[in-house]
């Protein structure tokens, strides 16, 4: 082999590095600003950068930079400068490399005639390895199943698949209801499928999955979408623009899955979506819009759908999951609302429980902050929908056990008239000075003018304190708390009483109090000058005592509460769905 042949072989063996299609460049006085589909970068510090870029831009866009450097006899200094520049472009997703093909003068597969081939342009701008993506699409064929293969959604999906470089056929499937299509993509691996559907006021497209999973998702999603929120469902025809929107979006997402491209649902930077769970596209007609929402159906036949999220470590994580579970369009639980409730003197959240009665049942929860009230309301709502007593829900195991242990202690105390043997009343001096208690007690008795009385008991030596608020002359409990210190117990009981008064009814819910404190305090810091009069500082102190307090409650209860899953007979699909979102569902049968 001659020296020239060896040089040619060495060049051919190198990857062809190209600037991604669509990258725009703005020269600066002493630098460059580059922006593309996936990122942007500004490089400054040398007046030579614009000139260097002008010299290498053409070869870099053509994938011939290495040959350009070789032909120019570039020395080590110039090559180092070029490699530094290319390193920044690659780090920000503006550069792509593909194995060079010496037999293809147009360049690597996936780049042929980018100027006139929209598929090559799309793959070059999006794929990590455009050649591999193009090969995967070249080996694929698609099938659009629909009750009416000539319907607008089926035609739109088939047209979009063909524009993406995949031949598509439309096939009649009498099992599919009107307005629903199922897209199958056959390639080198398992069949990928995705369902899309038109509704009078919008539509949907599911996440890529196996054919059986896609069918189940479509049926469950249509059943989950709430008719009460859609006044246009009474038989009106779908908006004409919905078919091309949903058909194109469904085809695009399926093509991305087949080519190994990023899922379009993950590219918008929407922090409402939960990593690890599928997202569906929900479209609306008035105004025309589409957005992805986290959604998980009851049937999870695909292996990728059977992995549950880890328990939430922070309150922010728990609230994001709460929002997905209570989404107004596709959520499994009613959304906690606060807009129609006065948030002073206590934050409140409420929801309407589904039921067969003439009027919906309204459930209200209060807490030191609105976010904590929303979380408490979600847990109570889920418990009631699973049958009430018998299950306890929490954002993580610690939260669930804290709620369950407090409720169990309160139930045992309620069965003992007066006070349990050995329980002693705690002197006022031990709790009356707590700043949170003073605030909530003043709110209850002075601002709300409720004649109330408070009793704090210490049942034993384990550091458990039980506080109960009642109206004067009324035996019914207005507020109750079980906490580690008498001040915390008095404060949470007074707060619960204020919430009950503002909600317009009796307490009616087991005490949960400081069970949420570890979540609320995780990742937060208190200022040095804060005391327990500040909610954040108070909850941080309660959180520090929570683990030892739960141990004390377990000792007082005897055998610890079970941690197994709730029985399906009591909640159907809801316990499994809650666990999939990282919530904890404890079986807590009442003691005889």
Characteristic terms for this protein:
592 residues; alpha+beta; 3 domains; seven-stranded mixed sheet; four-stranded antiparallel sheet; globular; disordered N terminus
How is this fold's topology laid out?
Blueprint: H1 3-13, E1 15-19, E2 24-28, E3 31-35, E4 40-44, H2 49-62, H3 65-72, H4 76-91, E5 95-99, H5 118-126, H6 130-138, E6 141-146, H7 152-163, E7 168-172, E8 180-186, E9 192-199, E10 202-205, H8 211-224, H9 242-259, E11 279-285, E12 288-294, H10 315-325, E13 348-353, E14 361-366, H11 370-385, E15 390-394, H12 397-414, E16 424-425, H13 435-447, E17 452-458, E18 465-471, E19 477-483, H14 486-503, H15 517-521, H16 535-557, H17 568-571, H18 574-580, E20 584-588
Parallel strand pairs: 6-7
Antiparallel strand pairs: 1-5, 2-3, 3-4, 6-8, 8-9, 9-10, 10-11, 11-12, 13-14, 15-20, 16-17, 17-18, 18-19
Helix pairs in contact: 2-3, 5-6, 7-9, 12-16, 13-14
What is the general shape? globular
Oligomer: single chain
Largest sheet: 7 strands, mixed
Radius of gyration (Å): 31 Å
Biggest sheet, spatial arrangement of strands: 7-6-8-9-10-11-12
Number of strands: 20
Strand content: 15-25%
Number of domains: 3
Structural description of this entry:
The chain has 592 residues and is an alpha+beta fold. The chain folds into three domains: 3-104, Outer Surface Protein A, domain 3 (Alpha-Beta Complex); 139-305, no CATH class; 348-588, no CATH class. The chain is 38% helix and 19% strand. It contains 18 helices and 20 strands. The strands form six sheets. A seven-stranded mixed beta sheet has the order 7-6-8-9-10-11-12, with helices on both faces. The N and C termini lie far apart (92 Å). The relative contact order is 0.07. The model is unreliable at 1-13, 102-111, 228-234 and 562-571 (pLDDT under 50).
């Amino acid at each position: 082999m001659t020296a020239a042949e060896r040089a040619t072989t060495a060049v051919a063996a190198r990857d062809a590095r190209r600037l991604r299609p669509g990258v725009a460049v703005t020269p600066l006085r002493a630098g460059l600003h580059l922006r593309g589909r996936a990122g942007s970068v500004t490089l400054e510090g040398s007046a030579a950068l614009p000139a260097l870029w002008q010299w290498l831009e053409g070869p870099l866009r053509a994938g011939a930079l290495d040959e350009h450097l070789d032909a120019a006899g570039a020395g080590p200094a110039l090559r180092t400068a070029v490699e530094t520049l290319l390193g920044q472009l690659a780090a920000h997703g503006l550069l792509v490399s593909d194995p060079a093909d010496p037999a293809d003068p147009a360049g690597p597969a996936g780049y042929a005639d980018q100027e006139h081939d929209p598929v090559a342009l799309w793959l070059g701008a999006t794929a990590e390895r455009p050649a591999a993506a193009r090969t995967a699409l070249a080996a694929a064929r698609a099938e659009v199943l629909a009750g009416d293969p000539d319907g607008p959604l089926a035609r739109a999906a088939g047209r979009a698949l063909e524009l993406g470089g995949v031949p598509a056929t439309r096939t009649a499937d009498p099992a599919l209801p009107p307005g629903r299509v199922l897209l199958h993509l056959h390639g080198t691996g398992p069949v990928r499928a995705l369902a899309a559907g038109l509704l009078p006021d919008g539509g949907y497209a599911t996440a890529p999955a196996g054919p059986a999973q896609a069918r189940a998702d479509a049926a469950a999603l249509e059943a989950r979408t709430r008719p009460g929120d859609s006044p246009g469902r009474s038989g009106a025809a779908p908006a004409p623009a919905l078919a091309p929107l949903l058909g194109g979006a469904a085809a695009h997402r399926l093509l991305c899955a087949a080519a190994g491209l990023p899922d379009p649902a993950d590219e918008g930077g929407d922090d409402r979506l939960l990593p690890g769970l599928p997202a569906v596209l929900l479209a609306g007609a008035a105004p025309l819009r589409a957005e992805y929402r986290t959604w998980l159906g009851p049937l999870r036949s695909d292996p990728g759908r059977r992995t549950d999220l880890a328990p939430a470590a922070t309150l922010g994580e728990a609230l994001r999951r709460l929002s997905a579970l209570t989404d107004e369009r596709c959520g499994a639980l009613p959304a906690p609302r606060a807009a129609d409730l006065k948030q002073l003197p206590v934050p409140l959240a409420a929801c309407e429980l589904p039921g067969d009665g003439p009027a919906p049942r309204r459930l209200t929860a209060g807490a030191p902050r609105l976010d904590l009230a929303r979380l408490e309301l979600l847990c109570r709502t889920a418990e009631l929908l699973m049958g009430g007593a018998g299950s306890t829900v929490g954002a993580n195991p610690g939260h669930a056990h804290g709620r369950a242990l407090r409720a169990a202690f309160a139930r045992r105390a309620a069965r003992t008239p007066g006070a349990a043997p050995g329980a002693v009343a705690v002197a006022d001096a031990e709790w009356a000075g707590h700043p949170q208690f003073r605030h909530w007690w003043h709110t209850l008795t002075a601002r709300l003018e409720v004649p109330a009385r408070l009793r704090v008991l210490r049942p034993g030596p384990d550091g458990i304190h039980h506080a109960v608020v009642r109206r004067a002359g009324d035996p019914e409990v207005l507020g109750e708390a079980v906490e580690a210190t008498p001040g915390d117990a008095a404060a949470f009981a007074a707060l619960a009483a204020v919430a009950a008064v503002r909600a317009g009814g009796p307490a009616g819910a087991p005490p949960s109090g400081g069970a949420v404190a570890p979540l609320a305090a995780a990742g937060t810091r208190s200022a040095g000058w804060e005391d327990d009069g500040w909610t954040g500082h108070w909850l941080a102190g309660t959180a520090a005592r929570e683990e030892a307090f739960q141990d004390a409650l377990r000792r007082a209860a005897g055998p610890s509460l079970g941690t197994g899953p709730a029985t399906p007979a009591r909640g159907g699909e809801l316990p499994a769905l809650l666990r999939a979102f990282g919530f904890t569902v404890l079986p807590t049968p009442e003691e005889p």
